[in-house]
Write a structure and sequence with these properties.
Elements: E1 2-7, H1 13-23, H2 34-46, H3 55-71, E2 80-83, E3 86-89, E4 105-108, H4 121-129, E5 133-134, E6 142-148, E7 151-156, E8 167-168, E9 178-190, H5 195-207, E10 212-219, E11 225-234, H6 238-248, E12 255-263, E13 265-273, E14 276-285, E15 288-294, H7 296-306, H8 310-324
Parallel strand pairs: 1-2, 2-5, 3-4, 8-9
Antiparallel strand pairs: 1-7, 6-7, 9-11, 9-12, 10-11, 13-14, 14-15
Helix pairs in contact: 1-3, 2-3, 2-4, 5-6, 7-8
Length: 330
């Protein structure tokens, strides 16, 4: 479904939580804990802005975010989310301006009688992490409206057309097929670093939110053998990852290239094998299933416990998933 958020006053997680929760059915996958990971990540990103906010309202927003993500985990929702102009106070502290990057905004005067915060870093970070896109004008077949405190969520008939793959910027909701144009490739060449250090660099980059980290053998000046580190990340995470590369490696420079990433629509199912249950990820291209990928860690654990080859568990899970899942995305 296509949902559009429209706010008349301060946009907060507290105002969003109930109306969005009413529109979204709670879905769970066995062993899936990303909502806790998402909450921890947004909390970490918001921390530098705490000093500019009322602490009681900060705690309310933090609790509301935990509730919202438990009902509507970012990685599990098959929603197309948009937001119209975000109301922003005219006296917003300058460090908070970075939170509005990519959004359509309109300036409002502070209201001394307002009981909720005029600006919520948690709300703005949720918009970014959930891949919510700015929308200038409304169009389409309006099906339903849910109201919150100072905002409305409009549900439109999905206008997806099979022949088109939508383009997004930093789209982190992978439930629908899309091309993400908000990615960067970072590259550094090294010929004077320990392989042990490289392993640590990879761990640090992945912990900081890098999508992929790869090592490639290269030939450098004076025919010296070296290693190229390549990191793919969202553009909003580039500065944090550059800091890691500069501080944890011996490089004096980082190359960067804008890239687009075409991602399949994803669904998760749980299949029951003779050794136990396995979570399986399904990939769909133009509404047709083209990938079946059992969860490796689960398969490995079952294979070790039963004393059978890993590939036997893996292939059996694929066979069952093929039989039990639809070829068409419905």
């Amino acid at each position: 479904m296509k949902l559009v958020i429209r706010a008349d006053k301060a946009f907060t997680i507290q105002s969003l939580m109930q109306p969005l929760g009413r529109l979204v059915k709670k879905t769970t996958v066995a062993g899936f804990t990303s909502s806790e990971q998402e909450w921890a990540r947004i909390k970490q990103l918001a921390e530098p802005y705490r000093v500019y906010c009322d602490q009681k309202e900060w705690e309310r927003e933090e609790a509301a975010l935990a509730t919202l993500l438990s009902v509507c985990p970012i990685a599990q929702n098959s929603l197309s989310l948009y937001i119209q102009e975000v109301p922003v106070p005219g006296d917003l502290p300058l460090p908070m301006l970075a939170l509005m990057k990519g959004m359509l905004i309109r300036e409002i005067e502070p209201n001394p009688l307002e009981s909720s915060p005029l600006f919520s870093p948690y709300a703005m970070l949720w918009l970014r992490e959930a891949g919510v896109k700015p929308l200038r004008t409304l169009s389409g077949h309006l099906l339903h409206i849910e109201y919150g405190d100072g905002l409305a969520i409009l549900q439109f008939e999905d206008d997806y057309r099979e022949e088109e793959i939508p383009l997004f910027f930093e789209q982190k909701n992978h439930q629908e097929e899309h091309i993400d144009e908000g990615m960067l490739l970072l590259q550094v060449n090294l010929d004077d670093i320990s392989p042990e250090w490289l392993a640590y660099v990879m761990e640090q980059c992945l912990s900081a939110g890098a999508n992929d980290v790869h090592f490639f053998p290269v030939t450098m000046k004076k025919s010296r053998p070296g290693t190229m580190i390549q990191v793919m990340c969202y553009q909003s995470q580039a500065e944090a990852l550059k800091t890691i590369l500069f501080s944890e490696t011996t490089t004096f420079g980082i190359r960067s290239f804008p890239v687009a990433c075409h991602r399949l629509a994803r669904r998760f199912i749980t299949v029951r094998t003779e050794w136990g249950e396995v979570v399986v990820k399904l990939g769909y291209h133009r509404q047709k299933r083209v990938q079946i990928a059992p969860e490796y860690a689960v398969c490995a654990k079952l294979a070790e416990k039963a004393g059978v080859p890993l590939k036997r568990v893996y292939q059996h899970a694929i066979k069952i998933a093929d039989e039990e899942s639809s070829v068409n995305l419905v």
